[in-house]
Structure formats: structure tokens, C-alpha cells
Amino acid sequence: MATCEMGSVPLTESAWLVDAVAALHGAYEHIHPYMAVALCLAGTAMNAVTVVVLTRPSMLSPINAILCAVAICDMLVMTSVLVFVYHFLISANFR
């Protein structure tokens, strides 16, 4: 009986799972940086639209101010992820 150790849980007869995860990783690692850049750019743009909408005079309320702050923080997070992905994953391939 073959077992596979994933974390602290022994999985019986699951060596195929390790092979499947390794194959998925091999296929996904090449497209991940470009997908991350696209998602970060789209997310930053959509959060900017959210900030514009929520700061209109007719939309001013305490809840919308909190939602606006969340959108701004999300833009900062996405911008930092964008810098990380570009520097460590995309430009590293060209060095």
C-alpha cells in the first residue's frame, strides 16, 4: 500500500495527486505572472472607478467613506503586487 505524505496527513493511494499538482504547477507557472499583471491592472482600474463613484456628492455617507477607504487600500495592495510580479517574475526571466 503506497502512501503520500502531504502536510501532516498521510494520504493512502494518492501518489497520483502529487503528480497532478506537479503537472498543474508546471503548466501554470508560465502564465501566472501575466495573469497577475492583467488582474492587478483591471482591479486597480475598477477600484479607481469605485472611488470616483463613491466620492460623488450624492453618494457621501459614512458607509461609503469606509468602502472608499477599502477601495484605496485595495489599489495600494494591487500596485505593490504589480511591482513584485514585474520585478521578481517577469523581469527576472530577461536577466
Automatic annotation (TrEMBL):
Domain of life (superkingdom): Eukaryota
GO MF annotation list: G protein-coupled peptide receptor activity
Flavoprotein keyword on record: no
InterPro entries cross-referenced by the UniProt entry: 7TM_GPCR_serpentine_rcpt_Srw, GPCR_Dmsr-1
UniProt keyword annotations, A-Z: Membrane, Transmembrane, Transmembrane helix
Transmembrane segments: 34-54, 66-89
Pfam families from the UniProt entry: 7TM_GPCR_Srw
PANTHER family: G-PROTEIN COUPLED RECEPTORS FAMILY 1 PROFILE DOMAIN-CONTAINING PROTEIN, MYOSUPPRESSIN RECEPTOR 1, ISOFORM B-RELATED
Name used for this protein in its record: G-protein coupled receptors family 1 profile domain-containing protein
Native species: Strongylus vulgaris (Blood worm)
Origin organism lineage: Eukaryota, Metazoa, Ecdysozoa, Nematoda, Chromadorea
